[in-house]
Amino acid sequence: MTQRRPETRTALVRRARRINRELALLYPDAHTELNFSTPLELLIATVLSAQTTDRRVNMVTPVLFARYRTAADYASADREDIEKIIQSTGFFRAKTTSIIAIGQALCDRFGGEVPRRMKDLVTLPGVGRKTANVVLGNAFGIPGITVDTHFARLSHRFRWTSETDPDKIEAAVGSLFPRKEWTMLSHRVIWHGRRVCHSQRPACGACGVAHWCPSYGLGPTDPEVAKKLVKEGPFS
User: Could you give the residue numbers annotated as active site?
Assistant: First the structure.
């Protein structure tokens, strides 16, 4: 039996970028599925999205955003009121604590405005690199890679990296692509993970990037069987 040679760095970069190009064709309208109209709204929505779906967040944010429009509003918010509004998103007490503290921090240190720098965003309560990259990429147009559960899973299946720490995944995958591609790459990979490359039964036989995926065969390869596993968006 001929042993397969390890993939070279050059081959990995070429394959990764080919997958990205194919995903761009599959998902030309890929975008964040959180509804927002300001950087503050996106920041709050992203905090709320932890351990729940974007669809669930989008169900509660119209009421929340209508009642709380500024960082000062959150800073002086009635805790029970916010908890009641966001309860269905899960972990609502911890999320309420973060939201109020974010409002206070924005008022105390950033003039009530959401900062445009990673090093500032990650100093806000409950905000890590994932949340910061969502805000930077989608509210300010500053490229960033969002490593959520879908992105991490597909990064491993595509064998772009073997890292498990989100920050290390971000760095490893980011090194394969031009910086300008990072935000849209994140959207495309996340959309593909939600629709096709599921955690339990990926729809391999209906996957548009199967030819370049070393994990092909992890799920059903029969096109008719796989087609039934594909989930239609939007997920907002």
Answer: 130, 148
